[in-house]
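dumping this here before i forget
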Amino acid sequence: VKDEPKVSDAEYDLDYQTLVRLEEQFPALIQPDSPTQRVGEKPDSGFQTVSHTVPMLSLDNAFSDEQLDEFEQRLFKLIGAQKISYCCEPKLDGLAISLRYENGFLVRGLTRGDGVSGEDITSNIKTIGSIPLKLRTSTPPPILEVRGEIYMPKDGFEALNKQAEEKGDKVFVNPRNAAAGSLRQLDPNI
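structure:
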């Protein structure tokens, strides 16, 4: 919620999976405030929450061959097929984003949020020079939604933290949090 993790994402995911297994084994011990009993807290900000046109779903984490096999079996059931082609890419650990263009113009940038709705960070998105405010075509579609990751390269992250240290400001734990924190500034000039 506050973009201040105490452990790495990988460590959190492994601990979360351990908790899931323990709660499956001992359901009487499940607490109402367990991380498994909620999707997540609402962001601690002043951004407007907007529903996604189409939900932004997320893949579950898989840490073993068995979990990958279970994932594939769920896909087979979901799409009604017994053969699937996969494409794998290096993971960019950033902030999932949805950009909506209407008649060629950027009208909205949303974070993934809970997958059903996200924070409207359009004014901050517009500060990123590599994101076009207008599509480069004379015949744009009426509506185009682009989804991807906004991330901070490691060298930019290191320079940002060095600058923060010199000013006596708080440093970021990792590049993902730096990117997410930058996009969640209420003042786009920052």
